[in-house]
Amino acid sequence: PGSQDLLCFWDVLEHTPDDRAVLAEALRCLKPGGHVAISVPAYGFLYANNDRIAHHIRRYTRGELRRKLEQAGFEVRKATYVNVLLGVFIIPAVLVIKLKERMLPVRDDTTTNLNWRVPRPLNAVLARVFGFERRLWSRLDAPFGHSLLVVARRPPTPRAP
Fold it and tell me: Which end of the chain is more exposed for a tag (fewer CB within 10 A), N or C?
């Protein structure tokens, strides 16, 4: 208890049956003034077969994750959507895939986005886009995106008078 300065949950919280319990435990483990950094997939309406295969239980909105963190006792310092520029393409693609899944279901489909090979030059371009976005969203909060990044702090212990 109270021993950690920083906890990172990179694409973890969406896998846990009781995310509120995980956040409460994170708060308990952090030192006063310690931080938690969380990345999660955004928007429940994007939940698709890819999420089922990855054992995701849920996706989040910024407001939902902010509320859960605040209810657990955290102070939210940063809450922004990420993967915005690529999300302009990813979000419609996921919606088309969901429509295809509904109209032409494949029994026991185990394909995910990890099955797709991305040519090295394209991967380099995508990495640059994501890097550019990282600098942009460090100053601003994005209004939408394919993922969500939140940094929250355990409040410092009140000082005695």
Answer: C
CB atoms within 10 A of CB 65: 22
List, for residues 62-85, the tens digit of each pLDDT value: 999 999 999 999 999 999 999 988
Category of 83 on φ-ψ map: left (φ > 0), alpha (ψ -120 to 50) or beta: left
Alpha carbons within 13 angstroms on the beta-carbon side of residue 110 total: 1
Please list, in sequence order, all residues whose beta carbon lies within 8 angstroms of the beta carbon of residue 71, skipping any fewer than 6 positions away: 20
Q: Which residue in the block uniquely carries the two structure tokens 């309406």?
A: 45
CA distance 102 to 46: 13
Selection from 47, 49, 26, 50 nearest residue 36 by Cα: 26
161 Cβ partners below 8 Å, 6+ apart?
none
Helix (H, G, I), strand (E, B) or coil at 70: helix
pLDDT (tens digit per residue) in 99-140: 988 888 877 777 766 667 888 998 898 888 888 888 887 788
